[in-house]
Amino acid sequence: MRVVKKNVYYCSFCNKYKLTSQAMKLHEEHCTANHNRSCRLCGRQDGVLKVDPPAVVKKETIGVFDHIEIEDKHEEDTYTKIRKWSGGCPACILAAIKLNGIWPDFDYIEESKRYYATNRRYARECEGDDGGGFLL
Description:
Elements: E1 9-10, E2 17-18, H1 21-30, E3 56-62, E4 65-70, H2 74-86, H3 90-100, H4 108-127
Antiparallel strand pairs: 1-2, 3-4
Helix pairs in contact: 2-3
């Protein structure tokens, strides 16, 4: 029987684990749960957009409980702000919706396909690429 003891490194943000400290440092730098992340897809270095909490429209006390009504369109408005801020980058959108606590109808795979298609087309126009090489 062979017994191997290894160090296991856990992400400070999402609890994912790796077996080398270098791999974990790289993961933590780009982790979607890290407020100060840098993005591997679009290269954004300024962290994640922090959106204001929803506006309280009405607050009243009923017995010992507070009854609070929240603005109805906040989640849609927040998602629109996030999409505009991210420039369409699916990794930045995912990080922002996770860290702002909203869960709109968001399909990471479809957003990634759209992002890659748009950016490949743009890169070819800028570089004069014939489409034979790998971009992004």
